[in-house]
Specification:
The complex is a heterodimer. Chain A has five helices and three strands, in the order αβααββαα. Chain A is of the alpha+beta class. Chain A is elongated, with a radius of gyration of 15 Å. Chain B is mainly α. The chains are: A alpha+beta, B mainly alpha. At the A-B interface, helix 2 and helix 3 of A face helix 2 and helix 3 of B.
Chain lengths: 100, 156
């Protein structure tokens, strides 16, 4: 049976973190602290989601002078849909039915 | 005036630079992203941990790029590697066995090794290339001892 894509525990944790603040651009280190994922796991996930069109990224100018621009990330519309689907799938059945 | 970076910080910077160089060229923005994020991590041990993770991430990206190559090339590379391994294994097993071994003394015909009546010539080369020499008298002596032991019970 083929494995369902983007359904690993780490991917679900990352998508849930993005969904919590869906309109906010997030930094890599910030996401790492929130999800508990190390950079060695986080960046391959970010790259993969970005290549699948589920994540958008841009460079953000630093708030303080002397620091370099920072790469920031946000879910795209398909990414948000996937994150919501996964959140619903993770909920107990009765709660999911009430929300749907 | 800014303080000089600690040894751990310098190591972290070097690791992140290595990670950036190991990432495939198409992912250069990601290499920059990982490298610049390091400047926002104030804690040196955390920065080092981050840098190590970046090295892992870059190696994983490189491996995933290798496995996503066109199947034809992957198959060719795998077959080539397999053939080399088989060749090496065969060479290893065949090493040193250049001539068949001498027959043991209890094998039929072992005592007749020096000459054959049919041809009148030696069935084997006089000297082996590995320097070992066959001593036909040794086999004959063993056969004589065996015959003596067989005859002794009859004489009693």
């Amino acid at each position: 049976m083929p494995r369902k894509p983007n359904n690993s525990r780490q991917t679900r944790a990352l998508l849930a973190a993005f969904l919590e603040q869906s309109a906010t651009w997030r930094h890599g280190y910030d996401l790492s602290k929130e999800t508990g994922l190390r950079s060695g796991t986080l960046y391959p996930l970010l790259m993969r989601l970005s290549e699948q069109g589920l994540l958008e990224s841009r460079w953000q100018e630093p708030e303080r002078p002397g620091l370099p621009p920072r790469h920031v990330y946000r879910l795209t519309a398909p990414g948000l849909t996937l994150a919501r689907e996964q959140e619903l799938a993770a909920m107990p059945a009765e709660r999911a039915g009430a929300l749907a | 005036m800014t303080a000089a970076p600690s040894r751990w910080r310098r190591l972290a910077v070097q690791l992140v630079q290595h990670a950036a160089s190991a990432l495939p060229g198409a992912r250069a923005p990601w290499a920059d992203a990982m490298r610049r994020e390091l400047d926002y991590i104030g804690d040196d041990p955390a920065a080092l941990q981050w840098a190590l993770g970046c090295v892992v991430a870059s190696y994983r990206a490189r491996l995933s790029q290798w496995f996503s190559l066109r199947p034809t090339w992957r198959q060719v590379a795998t077959s080539g590697a397999l053939m080399v391994l088989i060749g090496l294994a065969l060479q290893e097993n065949a090493g040193g066995q250049t001539q068949p071994p001498w027959p043991a003394c209890d094998e039929p015909g072992a005592s007749r090794i020096s000459s054959t009546p049919e041809t009148g010539s030696s069935p084997r080369p006089a000297a082996r290339s590995d320097g070992l020499k066959h001593d036909p008298t040794a086999c004959e002596a063993i056969s004589a001892t065996d015959r003596t032991q067989e005859q002794e019970p009859r004489s009693r």
